[in-house]
Amino acid sequence: MSMADERIDREASGFGSQADEGGSEKKKRASRAKTNGSVKKKQRPKGVRVLLWFLRKSIVPLIMVIMLVAGLYIGYVVVGKQPEDEVFSWGTWQHIYDLIFADA
Fold first, then answer.
1. Cβ atoms < 10 Å from Cβ of 10
2. What pLDDT is attached to residue 18?
3. How many CB atoms lie within 10 A of CB 55?
4. Are 34 and 24 in contact (CB under 8 A)?
5. Residue 21, phi-psi category: left (phi > 0), alpha (psi -120 to 50), beta (remainder)
6. What local confidence, expressed as pLDDT, does residue 19 receive?
7. Residues in the chain where the model's pLDDT stays below 50
8. 44 vs 39, 51, 54, CA distance in Å?
9. Residue 86 · residue 76 · CB < 8 Å
10. Rg (CA), the chain
C-alpha cells in the first residue's frame, strides 16, 4: 500500500493528520470570532468604569496599609506584651522613633 492510499484511508476513517486537525481548529476559531464580533458588548457607564479602574489600581496599596496596621498591632501587643490602647497613640510611636534615632 502506498503512502497516498494510507492517507486516504486515515481521512476516510476520521483520523486526519495533525496539520488537518489544526486547520479545522483555526476555521472553528475564526467562525466563532466572526459570530462574537457581530454581537455588540454592552459598555458600562463612565462612572462605573472609573470606579472599577480606581479599585483595581488601589487594591495593592490598600492591602499594604492593612498589613502595616496588623503588623503594628501584633508587634506591639502580642510580641511586646503592651496594652492595646497604646498601640495607635502618637506619643508611643514618637517615643520609639526618639529611642531609635537619638544622638548617642
1. 13
2. 52
3. 10
4. no
5. alpha
6. 52
7. none
8. 16, 11, 15
9. yes
10. 33
Q: What is the reported pLDDT for 64?
A: 96
Closest CA to 61 of 69, 50, 49, 51: 69
Residue 25: its pLDDT value, please? 72
Measured in degrees and rounded to the nearest 5, phi and psi for residue 15 equal: -105, 85
Distance of CA 11 to the CA centre of its chain: 44
First to last CA, the chain: 95
The C-alpha torsion from 65 through 67 and 70 to 73, rounded to 10°, is -70
Q: How far apart are CA 67 and CA 92, in angstroms?
A: 19
Structure confidence at residue 42 (pLDDT): 83
Instruction: Specify the pLDDT at position 39.
Output: 61
Cell numbers placing 91: 506619643
For residues 73 and 87, the answer to whether their CB atoms sit within 8 Å is yes
